[in-house]
Queue: 2 jobs
Job 1
Amino acid sequence: MRRAAEEVGRAAGFVDLLINNAAIYLKKPFTEANEFDADMARRTFDVNAVGPLLVTKHFLPLVLAGSGKKIINISSEAGSISQCWRSREYAYCMSKAALNMQSVILQHRVKDDGVKVLAIHPGWMRTEMGGADADLDPSESASGIVETIARNSAIDGPMYLDYTGKAWEW
Ligand SMILES: NC(=O)c1ccc[n+]([C@@H]2O[C@H](COP(=O)([O-])OP(=O)(O)OC[C@H]3O[C@@H](n4cnc5c(N)ncnc54)[C@H](OP(=O)(O)O)[C@@H]3O)[C@@H](O)[C@H]2O)c1
């Protein structure tokens, strides 16, 4: 991450929009509590919650040097505690709830620098993660996310939104 940020810094000197999108959904944690796999959960947490913060850590100076000043964490409805309906899928949901918390803490830290942080649920998409039966083509989700990012610049405005721009409860 550090080397990637150094390279972008040399090539461009700034980043207007940082999007943390990568995540994993390991099938084994899709289990009941008595089958919970701690190693899989740690891997999930590492990629989905720790990874985005590491990227942000190394790219933040470039975001501060840019004029767009936005950091987007691609979250999930699965990270909402108040809207949770599941009785399994611990690891993925816990990792996205942690990503949401990270987004709020980061927003507090960077608000005086004029940086807006968003946590966006992209919808259920037909990707490797979402599967063939999902509702959305990823391009539809991506277009909605671009519009949602453009429309939500106010630092004190909503932070947890879906790809249609609808605000979610944490
Ligand atoms: N699909 C859905 O229905 C859905 C619903 C809610 C939220 N989301 C969220 O939307 C985002 C995109 O999901 P998706 O459906 O596109 O997932 P996906 O089809 O599984 O693709 C995940 C992407 O993340 C990358 N990635 C995974 N681990 C990585 C790592 N350690 N380092 C670098 N890259 C890594 C993968 O790269 P490689 O291909 O190189 O492995 C791949 O490009 C994720 O944050 C996901 O949690 C998806």
Job 2
Amino acid sequence: MLCLQTSSNPQWVEVAIDHPTEILLDHALCEKKAAAFALAMITRYPRHTRLVRDMIDLAKEELDHLQMVVEELDKRGLTLEHDAGNPYAQALHSHIRQGEPLRMLDSLIVGAFIEARSCERFSLLAEHAREDEMRDMYRSLLASEAGHYRAYTDIAREYFPHEQVRKRIEEFGQFEAAIVKGLGNTPTVHG
Ligand SMILES: [Fe+2]
Ligand SMILES: [Fe+2]
């Protein structure tokens, strides 16, 4: 799917559908961080108007998703939790080069991969979650998250040569596949 070079371990699906509460709690934090990341990109690159416009749209959609998941938590008598961090995203971020403009390119590609992997995991939950509402909710998110993957890669191609973007997506595909193979199949969106 999309840029991903490896599929999720089928064992993750088994763990995830056995722990819907944990998945929802982590999912809410993912949406919050996705919105925050888009705003951080605007803070870092304020003069890149295409990026600013697309990140505003993306942040709004992520906040809509956050609202939807918070409603779902509230229905179950649950609240948001403090964020203990996301080891998958942290591992991806560790591959971002520090000097500009490479930091910008790598940050956009990390955004793209997190969206792509989220989309893959949501499609698994849309198919396999035990509750109808969970399957419906994850199905409703697929097009939006796939659109976010495209937004990040389109922005990268707006500001960087296409061949440079293609090559870096390929390299990040290898980093990401290695990270995913090392995950412990825990009940989190990227676990
Ligand atoms: Fe989202
Ligand atoms: Fe997203």
